[in-house]
Structure formats: structure tokens, C-alpha cells
Write a structure and sequence with these properties.
Among the domains are: about 45 residues; about 90 residues, Orthogonal Bundle (Arc Repressor Mutant, subunit A), CATH 1.10.10; about 140 residues, TolB, N-terminal domain (Rossmann fold, 3-Layer(aba) Sandwich), CATH 3.40.50; about 110 residues, Tetratricopeptide repeat domain (Serine Threonine Protein Phosphatase 5, Tetratricopeptide repeat). Strands 8, 9, 10, 11, 12 and 13 form a 6-stranded mixed sheet that branches. A 4-stranded antiparallel sheet has the order 1-2-3-4, covered by helices on one side. Strand 1 and strand 2 form a beta hairpin. It is built from 27 helices and 13 strands. The protein is globular. Helix content is about 55%, strand content about 10%. The N terminus is likely disordered.
Length: about 650
């Protein structure tokens, strides 16, 4: 739209300076900001940005070289809308991630004042001012005002419509229900939803809740609209599915959560070998129903297939079904099915990525089920094979990022793979959580907070997202916000051990040791540990019989550390004894014993176990820079030496 400004009577013609023509692109150091298409391009490839992040970058680029205050920027991006500065921080982090600008080479933060876009911007050659010196006829002032008013009204309507169009829709795809409860296939019911979530997550204008958010509805008779309200989405996709012999029947409908009205419904009755066609059709119809203007890449992503073998696909579904339980038994079962899927189709990239993810989590610092050397080399081979088959598979890059972060201590490589995964799938909540952990370990707390907030935005009901936010605050030594995030996680699900463990860590940092001990006891019991209180008659009897065992050693070590700080060294040593018993049944990282000895003030033993942890490449060593339980050791020169060998400066 062009808005012509007319000169009122009496205005000197020499003062008239016609505005420059419209600028459609801005270029700087290999990047192109395309205002027509609304996208950022780098070396011929589109870099995905959310609408608000794109507007933020555009605003700064158009004012390159000028300080833009925070208030001005927030008013420009969120006019007439109240948002916190965390929203600005999230968008800024996404823009910096897209520009690879952690060093602030492009966008400089001026403390307490605002931001400056520093890089030289090349404007299009066509944007030249019109020749001056043309006399315009005098126009009455009232006509000028009328013209301006009309122009402003039109501009306002245009802005309102364009803003409305840019607002991303949020969508939940629920597990499909069986048409007959007598012949259920839960892996197919959840797998159908999982496949559609993967496809629809490629849509830039739609926020799709991840599978982890909807899995709990698999055996729940909750109404679809009620689930949509719980998940805080605009739309919900629900349906039913049944397989009979070689045929599959699917019914599906897309509902608006606010009004409960169906926007689209469909029924498919096909051969099971045509299930991929059904998934493609549903994805395309949902995109059409949401009135999304898709790019060629997005349209292609909706119909992308990773295998043509329906039996391999069914094995893959079983692998996903079990691994989505996020238990050690589930990951072990998932590995079996992924290997079977790969045996049928050696080029099944998704199956390799699923396999890598299972190995990663069995060796992760939180679960610590198997020794790092027993799982991470296998995970590496699977992740690299997946990328070799399909370089655009975000899940494979996420798996490789995890390996580089937790096992290889390749910090630059981990960040590169994290960014690649988010470029490929900006809605990858798990990667945002991993990016938060990585950023906190690096001491980049602004980036850690923004990534944690982004993960919660993608899935407001995810316990892991709230817990990652709590750990951000814990590592930043902000106790009260950390406890608030723990409470949020506990409100979502009080029978998960991790939020209790996190709350125990916060209480310990606040010096409230009895509360800390209580939370660690709950976490350990919920993880399968012996519920008898260490020090009780039942506990000592079990210890004498050698029957103490089970549970997560991470929680047990934290309990021993808290006992030591609370002035109960005997109970702390009993926790060490139980770690010894537990090590006869499963892997126990040397890091856990180091934590207890650190709490007891036994510096020599603590460093001895830390050295063993280093030799085994224990995952928790990535948190050396921020780990509060090792604060007593930081003044020792050996701590700095260990941090340097891990690749972390003090």
C-alpha cells in the first residue's frame, strides 16, 4: 500500500523530499532479510524464525547503527499488548541463534539501555530517492488532513489484518481411540498421533504440542475439547483408528477449542500399506483447514516419508511406543524394536535416530542406567548413520548434540548440532531443554533462561520443562524463582521423582536441610528405592541382609550429601553403603560417591572419585562450573585443573 502525502498551501516546494521507494530486502554478511516473503535467508537456505522474532530483527536492521531502547522495541513488536521482558529475551535469543551471534557481533546489548544492530546493511539498489525540484500544486490543509486520516485508517486495517494473520495457531493431536475396545493396538493409536505431530511440527505458523504432552490421554476418556483446554491450544485434532487384517479405518476431525465447532472431518478406509497416504492426506487437510499459506518446503515436509515398508513402520511404532514411556525398561524395549525395524529397512533414518535417543537416555546423567562407554559409542554410530541417510532429520542432530555435550565434551560441536536441530524444527521442545542445560553449563544464563521459557511455551504442561527452568535458577543461584518453578512442576505431577529431587536441591542451597532431606527421600522412593528411612531398624536390617537396593543413585547420593550438611555423618555413610549395594545391581557413577564425600568434607576421597568419574566420562562433569554440591571444592587447585581437562574454564 502506498500512502501519498500532499503538501498543504504555503509549504515551500524546496522543502519537499519524496520518501525513498519501498525496501523489499536488506543484506548483511551472507544474510538476506526478505520483507516480501517474511523470511531470513542464509546462503540460499531459509532460516526459520517465529513471526515476532522476524519482526524484531526487521526493526533492528531497519534502524542499524542506532540505539533502540527496550521500551521502544517492545512497543514496536507487541503494540497495545502487555508482555514481560522475557518474551523479548526469547525472541532476541532466537534471532541471535539464527545469526550465530553469541559474541554480539551483529546485535550489541547496551546494558540497561537497549540494543544496536552493528553490521553494515546493504539496501536494494532500486531504493533511490526521486528527483527533487518538482513543484506541486497547493492543496487546502483540510484535504491534507482528510487524506492523511484515510491513509492512516487503511494502514491501521492493513496492520490489524496482517497481525492477525501472523498469529501462530496452537494445535494438539490426541492419541487416536480404538473403534473397538476388544481389539486395541496402543502403539498404532499413539503412533498415528506421533506421526502427525512430526509432520505438522514443520509448519512455521503453527505450534504443535509434542507427543510427550498428549501421551497421557492414551488411556483417558477425556473429551477432546477438555484436553484442548488443558493443553492450552486453539485447535485439537482427534480421531479413531482400527486395524483389521490388512485394512485400516481412520476417522478424524479438527475442532476449534473455543467454540467446539468442527472445522474439518474425514474418514479413510484403506489397506494398511496405504497408512502413509492417509497420514499425508490428514496433514494436508489440517493445514488447509487452518488457512495456512505454506512454503514449498513446508508442503514437501507434510508428505515426507522415511520408509515404504509397512512392517518396518509397525516395528518403528512399537519402538516409539515403548521409548515414549521414558523408563529404563521402555528404552531397552525400544532398542529391540528399532533394531528390528532397521533389519527390515537398513535406510530407515527415523529408526536410527530413535535407537540413538534410547542409548543416549540410558547413559544420561539423570538416569545413569548404563556406563557411558557402553552406550554412547553405539548412540554415536546410530545418530551418524541417520544423518548420513537424511541430513535434514532434526531428531538425529539432537541425538548427536546430546552425545557431544554429555560424552565427548565437544562444546562447539554440541552447540552446532543443537542449532541445526532447531533450524530444522523450531518447535523441538526437547532440544530447547537441552539447549538450556548446555547454556547453563557454559555459564550463559540469559540464553539458558530464554531456552527454558521457550520449552515451556511449546509445552506448558511438561514437567521436564518446568524442572529445567528450576535448574536454570538453581545454577544461577536464584533460590526463590527456582522453588517457584519446582512448585509448578509438582502441581503438574507430584508422583514424578525429578521435581522432588530438584526441590531438595533448592532447599539444600537455602540451608533448609530437613526439608531437603524429606524431598530427596520422596524422590528416591518414587524412583524405586528402599522406602525404609536410612538409620531406621528396618533399613539396618535390610542393609545387613544385603537386600538394600533399587532406585536412582543420583537421588540417593543427593540424600547422602544432605545428611552430611545437616550434621548426620553416620546417615551419610549409610547412603554410601547403599550406593555400594546398588552398584552390584546396576551402574553407579563415581560422581555420586564424590558428591557424598564432598558433603562430608572428605576432600581427598571426593577428588579421588572425581578422577574416576573423569576416566569414565561421567555426564555430571559437564555441570562442574555451576554444580552447587561441589562448592566446597572450588578453592582447591585440583578443581580448576579438572574443569580445564573437561574443557570448562573456571
Amino acid at each position: 500500500m502506498r500512502l501519498w502525502v500532499l503538501c498543504p498551501r504555503g509549504m515551500s516546494d524546496s522543502s519537499v523530499q519524496p520518501a525513498s521507494g519501498p525496501k523489499h530486502t536488506f543484506s548483511f554478511e551472507g544474510f538476506t532479510l526478505d520483507l516480501v516473503r517474511g523470511c531470513l535467508i542464509h546462503e540460499g537456505q531459509e532460516v526459520k524464525l517465529r513471526p515476532k522474532s522476524f519482526e524484531l530483527l526487521r526493526y533492528l536492521v531497519e534502524r542499524s547503527g542506532r540505539l533502540v531502547g527496550r521500551a521502544e522495541l517492545m512497543q514496536a513488536i507487541w503494540p497495545d499488548t502487555f508482555v514481560s521482558e522475557e518474551s523479548l529475551a526469547q525472541c532476541l535469543m532466537e534471532v541471535r541463534r539464527a545469526l550465530h551471534d553469541d559474541s554480539q557481533r551483529h546485535i550489541k546489548t547496551v546494558h540497561r539501555r537497549g540494543y544496536i544492530f552493528l553490521t553494515e546493511v546493504k539496501e536494494p539498489a532500486s531504493a533511490k530517492p526521486a528527483p527533487t525540484g518538482v513543484r506541486l500544486p497547493a492543496i487546502p490543509t483540510i484535504m491534507v488532513a482528510s487524506a492523511l486520516l484515510v491513509g492512516l485508517v487503511i494502514a491501521g486495517l492493513y496492520w490489524w489484518r496482517s497481525t492477525r494473520a501472523k498469529q501462530p495457531a496452537s494445535l494438539a493431536v490426541l492419541p487416536f481411540r480404538p473403534l473397538s475396545t476388544s481389539d486395541r493396538d496402543e502403539s498404532l493409536e499413539l503412533g498415528m498421533a506421533d506421526a502427525l505431530i512430526s509432520k505438522l511440527s514443520n509448519l512455521r505458523r503453527t505450534t504443535v504440542r509434542p507427543t510427550s504432552a498428549v501421551r497421557r490421554y492414551l488411556n483417558d476418556d477425556i473429551d477432546g475439547l477438555a484436553a484442548g483446554h488443558e493443553l492450552r491450544t486453539d485447535w485439537v485434532l482427534e480421531g479413531s483408528i482400527q486395524r483389521s487384517g490388512d485394512r485400516i479405518r481412520v476417522t478424524v476431525q479438527l475442532l476449534g477449542v473455543r467454540d467446539g465447532k468442527p472445522s474439518w472431518a474425514g474418514t479413510f478406509d484403506e489397506k494398511f500399506t496405504d497408512i502413509f497416504t492417509v497420514q499425508d492426506a490428514i496433514s494436508e487437510r489440517v493445514a488447509d483447514a487452518l488457512a495456512l499459506q505454506l512454503t514449498g518446503a513446508e508442503r514437501k515436509g507434510l508428505t515426507k516419508r522415511y520408509t515404504g515398508d509397512s512392517q518396518a513402520y509397525q516395528l518403528y511404532l512399537l519402538g516409539r511406543f515403548h521409548s515414549n514411556k521414558r523408563t529404563s525398561a521402555g528404552f531397552t524395549k525400544g532398542i529391540e524394536y528399532f533394531l528390528q525395524a532397521i533389519a527390515r529397512d537398513p535406510n530407515y533414518a527415523e529408526a536410527y535416530a530413535g535407537l540413538a535417543n534410547c542409548y543416549n537416555l540410558l547413559g544420561s546423567q539423570e538416569m545413569s542406567v548404563l556406563a557411558p562407554k557402553d552406550v554412547f559409542p553405539k548412540a554415536t554410530a546410530a545418530a551418524r548413520r541417520a544423518i548420513e541417510i537424511d541430513e535434514t532429520l532434526a531428531e538425529a542432530h539432537a541425538a548427536l548434540a546430546f552425545i557431544k555435550f554429555q560424552y565427548e565434551w565437544d562444546w562447539a560441536g554440541a552447540e552446532r548440532e543443537l542449532r541445526r536441530a532447531l533450524d530444522l524444527n523450531p518447535q523441538y521442545a526437547h532440544v530447547e531443554q537441552l539447549f538450556a542445560s548446555y547454556s547453563a553449563a557454559m555459564g550463559r544464563f540469559e540464553a539458558s533462561l530464554a531456552a527454558s521459557r521457550r520449552a515451556m511455551e511449546l509445552d506448558p504442561t511438561d514437567i521436564a520443562a518446568s524442572t529445567h527452568l528450576a535448574f536454570h535458577y538453581l545454577y544461577a543461584r536464584q533460590d526463590d524463582p527456582a522453588m517457584e518453578a519446582c512448585r509448578t512442576a509438582l502441581e503438574l505431577d507430584a508422583v514424578q521423582p525429578m521435581p522432588h529431587w530438584c526441590a531438595g536441591m533448592v532447599y539444600e542451597q537455602k540451608g533448609q536441610y530437613q526439608k531437603s532431606i524429606a524431598e530427596f527421600q520422596i524422590a528416591f522412593a518414587l524412583s524405586g528405592g528402599n522406602v525404609a528411612r536410612p538409620g531406621s531398624e528396618a533399613y539396618l536390617h535390610a542393609l545387613d541382609r544385603g537386600t538394600v537396593g533399587g532406585g536412582n543413585p543420583v537421588y540417593l547420593a543427593s540424600l547422602g550429601h544432605a545428611y552430611a550438611l545437616a550434621g548426620n555423618p553416620e546417615l551419610a555413610r549409610q547412603a554410601l553403603g547403599e550406593l555400594d549395594q546398588l552398584a552390584k545391581q546396576r551402574y553407579v557413577s563415581p560422581y555420586e560417591r564424590a558428591v557424598v564425600h564432598a558433603g562430608l568434607g572428605e576432600t581427598e576421597l571426593a577428588f579421588s572419585w572425581l578422577e574416576r568419574a573423569y576416566a569414565e566420562r561421567a555426564g555430571w562433569l559437564v555441570s562442574l562450573r555451576v554444580e552447587p554440591r561441589l562448592d566446597r571444592l572450588r578453592s582447591d587447585h585440583r578443581f580448576g585443573n579438572l574443569a580445564r581437562r573437561v574443557g570448562l574454564s573456571r
